Each structure stands twice: as structure tokens, then as C-alpha cells.
Amino acid sequence: MSVFQFKQFTIYQDLAGMKVGTDSIILGSAIKIKSEYKRILDVGTGTGLLSLMIAQKSSNSDITAVEIDSNAYHQAKINIDKCKWRNRINLIHADAKQLEIDHKYDLIICNPPYFSNSKHSVIISKNTARHQVELTFKDLLNIWDKIGNDDSDLGCIIPIIESEKLYKMVKNHGNYLAYYLEVRSNPNSNLKRAVMLFSKNKMETIKSELCIHNNQGGYSEAYINMTKDFYLNH
Predict the structure, then answer these.
(1) Domain boundary assignment for the chain
(2) Which of 34, 53, 140, 199 could make a disulfide contact with 28, Cβ separation 3.0–4.6 Å?
(3) What pTM value is reported for the model?
(4) 208: closest CA among 22, 31, 23?
(5) Alpha helices, DSSP H only, in the chain?
(6) Whole-number Å distance between alpha carbons of 216 and 170
(7) Rounded-to-integer distance, Cα 50 and Cα 156, Å
(8) Checking phi first, is residue 203 left (phi over 0); if not, alpha (psi -120 to 50) or beta?
(9) pLDDT single digits (tens) 40-93
(10) pLDDT in tens, 161-205
(11) Dihedral angle, C-alpha 71, 162, 136, 120, nearest 10 °
């Protein structure tokens, strides 16, 4: 059985097409959970990792985790049922694009599919998680428009080469970039990922950079500090 142990919860991942990865850990660690975030939506929850990280960081947020893939849904259910915040997390097996709800969300968070131009994976569930087949940037923005409240935020992590495209799409919707974190693997590598937090409220963009590893190959001090509430050895 494939298991990833965090400080306050466990992720079982033998059923999941996509295992625990650095991207979700960075996104869950980097996004500050405001006290105003009473309702949070995790789009494409996968193993449930982001929902569990958010639940650990917040004490008064109700979280809805949505997953379209059957195997991933059952995996997330196992992980959520075993966690101490299960009463605050509502897991739904559905297509996020088709959600019909009677309330709106303060924060929508997503580690969206990407690599849309690469060859499709042979593993169907992995394909759903990592190719722009089930969810596109346009879909994600439509979800935000539809079920995000008037003061809501949208947080995601994407390849750096896609960040300008998404920024322009959000700007064209009349919304704003509140936080932008550029991520590189080591001091000598190219920028790899971008954590982006968008807001429906006008504000100045806070920009930062994160280097995951140091020159010796270990985790950088910045990465350790960012993830220390979650990793067992940080």
C-alpha cells in the first residue's frame, strides 16, 4: 500500500492516478487562509491532499472537495474519513463544471490539469488528472464566476509557461492577481511553476520566489519553513 505520512494526517494513494506531489504541497502551504474564507471549494481534489492541508490551516472553514474520477474519489473518501477534520469536509463525486449548489464560495483552490500539448498518458485516471481533457483554464474561470462570491479568490499552481496566458484570461474577466510565487527546483534551474492567487477585488500584486532545493541537493531553508507544518521531518 502506498502511503504518505504528514504530521497531522495520512494520505493513502494506492487507488489514485496521481500521487502526492510537490505542486500540491507548495500550493497548500503557500496560500494564506484568511479568516474571511468560510466556504472553500477544492476543484479536482485527487487524494484529498489540498482539502486536508486547508482544513489543518483553518479552524472555521467548511470545505467542499470535488472529484470527477471514480478511483480518485474513493481514495479521497478514505483519506478524509480517517482525518480529524472530516466533519468540515464535504466530498462530492461530480464534474465541477456541473455543480449545482445553493451557496457561493469565498475561496476556490485547484491544482489544475496541464501539459495540454504533451502525449496523453496511457493510464486513464492519470490522464484525467494531468491533461486538459476534463478541465481547462476557461472552465476553471467559469466555475469561479458561477459559484465564487463577489469578494472571492481563486488559487492555483501551474507551469510557469502557462502563467501569462492564465493571467491575461483573468484580467480580461475584470479580476486581479493578488499573489504570484515563482518556483524553481534549485538555484541554477529555470523557473518551473507559478502559484497564483487571483481576486475579484482590486489590489496590488505581492510577488515572491521559492527555490525548492539548495546547491547541495537538500531542501532549501525557504522550502522547509514554508512546509514545516506538514512534512514530518521539517
Answers:
(1) 3-227
(2) 53
(3) 0.90
(4) 31
(5) 22-30, 49-57, 70-82, 124-130, 137-147, 160-172, 221-227
(6) 38
(7) 11
(8) beta
(9) 999 999 999 999 999 999 999 999 999 999 999 999 999 999 999 999 999 999
(10) 999 999 999 999 999 999 999 999 999 999 999 999 999 999 999
(11) -50
